[in-house]
Amino acid sequence: MTTFTGDQISNDLQFDLNKNYELIIIDPETDAKTRVRIKKVGYFVNINPESIIHTLINYYDTIENDNKHSPNITCHKGCSDCCSNDFEISITEYFMILNYLGIRYGQDYLEQCSKKAIASHSASNCIFIDCTNGSCSIYEVRPLVCRKYGLYDCSINCKKLDEESELLFNAVSTDENTLFFRHSSLPEKKFACPPKRIVHWFGNLKDGKLASEKMKKLFYESFNGSSDTFIETLFI
């Protein structure tokens, strides 16, 4: 584990994407330290620990931990039998994937993804699957449904799973800060942001970029703001 403090982070800092990192955020007034464990920090380096993206990363870690203790590991990198365009993802997952692709491949690649999304059909292979080898170009930030499939007992349609396959019964709940959001001033109220098909999200890019100022601001707040500021931006 390699540790950085906030003042050591700069735009030109290079990271080894095969290692894990820890970012320490220090409150200048109280000197209180917040430790944020981050996988492949090159994609997540400046996230706010109170952001919705930080919650998503925690979900990744929880599901990965379940996967390590699962008696059945049917799904693996390169397996794409169930990977069609006919599934929905949250706005949180969309922003995570968008950020990852923008950093790793650039705007031209995102523009290609958008064109592919517009031209695709729901029953066709997911736009991020390489049809030659079944690999997933967003595997490191793949959606929650992909992470859960073949792990928990909600997976019932995979041809590789039979009645004797042992799956975990208690699926991780991942609705908070992905599909539903809570504001600190209204803790009992849930603010919903419905999921949409992955091709819908990417099909609405314009020249590989978010098309509206509101979406750009939501993208920024999802990484840099708290869940409160994200909700405020979402419903303004």
Please describe what this structure looks like.
The chain is 32% helix and 14% strand. The protein is globular. The strands form three sheets. It has a three-stranded mixed β-sheet, with no helix packed on it. Strands 4-7 form a two-stranded antiparallel ribbon. The termini are far apart. A hairpin with a 6-residue loop joins strand 2 (20-26) and strand 3 (33-39). Helix 6 runs antiparallel to helix 7 (227-234). The protein has 236 residues and is of the alpha+beta class.
Put the structure in a nutshell:
The protein is of the alpha+beta class and 236 residues long. The protein has helices at 52-68, 91-104, 107-119, 144-148, 198-203, 213-224, 227-234; strands spanning 2-5, 20-26, 33-39, 88-89, 180-183, 186-192, 196-197. The longest helix has 17 residues, at 52-68.
Mean pLDDT: 79
Q: How is the main sheet built?
A: 3 strands, mixed
Give the strand line-up of the largest sheet.
Answer: 1-2-3
Estimated structural class: alpha+beta
Overall helicity: 25-40%
Shape: globular
**CA gyration radius, whole angstroms:** 18 Å
Write the layout of secondary structure elements.
Layout: E1 2-5, E2 20-26, E3 33-39, H1 52-68, E4 88-89, H2 91-104, H3 107-119, H4 144-148, E5 180-183, E6 186-192, E7 196-197, H5 198-203, H6 213-224, H7 227-234
